Amino acid sequence: MSYYDYQLNLKNLFTNTSKHFPQREVVYKDKLRYNYKKFFERVSGLAAGLEQIGVKQGDVVAVIDWDTNRYLESYFAIPMMGAILHTVNIRYPPEIIYYTMRHANDKYVIVRDEFLPLIEKYAAMFDFVKAWIVYNEDGKEVQTSLKPYYNYEDLIQGTTYEFPDLNERTTATIFYTSGTTGMPKGVTFTHRDLVLHTLVLSVVTRYPPLDLTEKDNFMILVPMFHVHQWGMPYSCILGGNKYILPGRYEVGTILELIKREKVTYSAMVPSILYMILNAPNIDEYKEYLKGWKVTIGGAALPKGLALKAKSLGITTIAGYGLSETAPVLTIAFLNDYVRSMKDEELLDYMISTGIPLPMVNLRVIDPNNKDVPWDGKTVGEIVVRAPWNTRGYYMDEEKTKSLWRDGWLHTGDLAVIDQYGYIRIVDRDKDAIKSGGEFIPSLVLENVISEHPMVGEVAVVGMPHEKWGERPVAFIVRKGNVDENSIIEHLNKYVEKGTIHKWWIPDKIIFIDSLPKTSTGKIDKKELRKNL
Q1: What are the pLDDT digits (tens) for 300-320?
Q2: What CATH number did the domain enclosing 486 receive?
Q3: Has residue 264 got a pLDDT over 90?
């Protein structure tokens, strides 16, 4: 009898999901819902249809869409058949979308009808695409000048597919980083990467304060084009949770889905939570927000925002990761050292960068590659080894060498680590403010300013200074009547407490109607610097 070499691929990850949770639902807005059994039937049908039109193992299949059930089906069908899923960033400008698609060598493209006019306009440039798969909101037939094309729903009618038992090192996904300089860089991940990430993520979301179970209803407000939607589609389906997809993000739709579908867990960047909590009609939904659990990533979770959420009965905790790390590296779950702390002190830990996930080997190092002391004060760079890290940038050997210096993935994030092992990012290396030879952490300043009751969003950047090199400037979105003197007075209270130094108080405070955002919803500090 020959030994079976069990492969950590997506097919084996979901062997029993539809059997154990056949009646759990996938819900797309108010448009449709179906159970897991039907979901996996559609995944199988999509793979069969893609094979019929010529998709082979190793082909790159792109998806251009909002967060829909069809995107979720693609998350499974494409990599499980041995092709490579390219999640195209639809918020990139057209020329960057084109660049990433050509660079990834997309052979087939699944595209929602509202994005067709842009592609049709430049159809001749997409000569590398063999076929287009199109659809619209209601599943009706779509006409397009792109050739050849197929309607999505036609591909999955009455067809089934036997997924191959792929080698776990087979590439499953590719997407492009939303870097602040240069062209976006491609990162790839294997089946093994995704399986291990899913298993560990499924474990840690069961820790306090999230305490998730199979009874929780998920609505993830991270675009599906962004870093595997933080791994939540795979983790949710594995765990048998109801999965709600909101399509394009509209606050009114999101609040209605929370109410109607009894959403209990979400993940998002801070700006999305800010928009939800500041909706004009938020009072109508207060009773449905109580008990909602939210993981915040992509940027620091401001204390002011966490306090606002807490006042509505919402639990928020922070997480951290990169495009290059699949993405999750840390979550601010509560270990034995902090679990019994009082509420205010506990909140400070819940909004920290958190502690490394199981299997994540994370260090904070000084310029000599030595670990910094666990004193909560000494700043160093986060470097990491995790079983799901990308092996490098796609077709970019030089940047790959820089990323993986000395055998560690260098994040470029500056942080401290405290006596209990909790990490607190204080800045990105490129965002760090160097003033008079002293390092001023912009994230600490932003966190303190956010606690002012009349401050909505805030970002602190460095402004060139003839004498000191740089000085901090705060950009603030008002939530009410506030002026510069009020902000300075507020900051001085934290100087007296010893939370910040007098030297850190910004030289200039600029009030702004809204903060510029990157394609993934993070505050775009490079755009703010252009105003200085």
Answers
A1: 899 999 999 999 999 999 999
A2: 3.30.300.30
A3: yes
Contacts of 361 (CB under 8 A, 6+ apart): 384, 385, 386
Residue 324 included in any domain: no
Task: Provide the Cα torsion 149, 150, 151, 152; round to 10°.
Answer: -110
pLDDT digits (tens, 9 = 90+) for 38-62: 999 999 999 999 999 999 999 999 9
358 within domain boundaries: no
Last residue of a domain, one of 220, 253, 268: 268
What is the CB-side half-sphere exposure of residue 127 using CA atoms within 13 A?
2
The whole-angstrom separation of Cα 436 and Cα 431 is 16
188 pairs with which residues across the strands? 174
Q: Which pLDDT score is estimated for 140?
A: 82
**What does the pLDDT look like over 268-289, one tens digit per residue?**
999 899 999 999 999 999 999 9
The span from the CA of 241 to the CA of 233, in Å, is 10
pLDDT surpassing 60 at residue 180 = no
Residue 420 identity (one-letter amino acid): Y
- Rounded to the nearest angstrom, the gap between the alpha carbon of residue 279 and the centroid of all alpha carbons in its chain is 22
Last residue of a domain, one of 268, 289, 307: 268
> 461 forms bridges with which residues in the sheet?
473
Angle between helix axes 69-80 and 232-239 (nearest 10 degrees) is 90
Tokens read off for 366: 């000084």
The percent of residues in the chain predicted with pLDDT above 90, rounded, is: 85
Contacts of 445 (CB under 8 A, 6+ apart): 460, 472, 474, 500, 504, 506
Strands 469-478 and 508-511: parallel
Please state, in angstroms and rounded to a whole number, the distance separating the CA atoms of residues 78 and 61.
7
Cα of 377 vs its chain's centroid, Å: 28
Domain with 39 in it: what CATH number?
Answer: 3.40.50.12780
CA distance 477 to 480: 9
pLDDT confidence bin for 179, thresholds 50/70/90: low
The span from the CA of 237 to the CA of 241, in Å, is 6
Residue owning tokens 């699944």: 110
